[in-house]
Amino acid sequence: VHTWRVDNTFESLRTFGILSVGGITSLLPFPDGRRLVTYTARAVSIWNSTSGDLLRDLPGVDVKARGVALSPDGGLLAVCGGGGAIEAWDTDTGLRLMQSRGAHDGEE
């Protein structure tokens, strides 16, 4: 992942050493711009957007991530997967706060 300044200079800001089998599904910036979330079908990670350092992998994400969303303050991350499964995570502590298997448990 490579980030660029979005002004008339288009200066290269940072290259993240993110390795993932199958590639990153999506990247989502935190509201304050200090962190980024990346996700694949198998991993959800939080990165420092200035240094490029990995801050946290969310251990045990049990859904194959198909989408992520952040609360307006960036303190809560929702991860949705197949069959309506949802997990909610505290982005500062990395603790899973809620898990719902969804209506179609096991569906991908």
Tell me about the largest β-sheet: 4 strands, antiparallel
Order of SSEs: EEEEEEEEEE
Number of strands: 10
Major sheet: order of its strands?
3-4-5-6
**What is the mean predicted local confidence, pLDDT?**
77
**Silhouette:** elongated
Q: Which secondary-structure class do the elements indicate?
A: mainly beta
Detail the poorly predicted runs.
Answer: none
Instruction: Supply Rg.
Output: 15 Å
State the helicity in percent bands. under 10%
Strand content: 35-45%
Q: Tell me the distance between the termini.
A: 27 Å
Number of helices in the DSSP assignment: 0
How would you sum up this structure in a few lines?
The chain has 108 residues and is mainly β. The protein is built from no helices and ten strands.
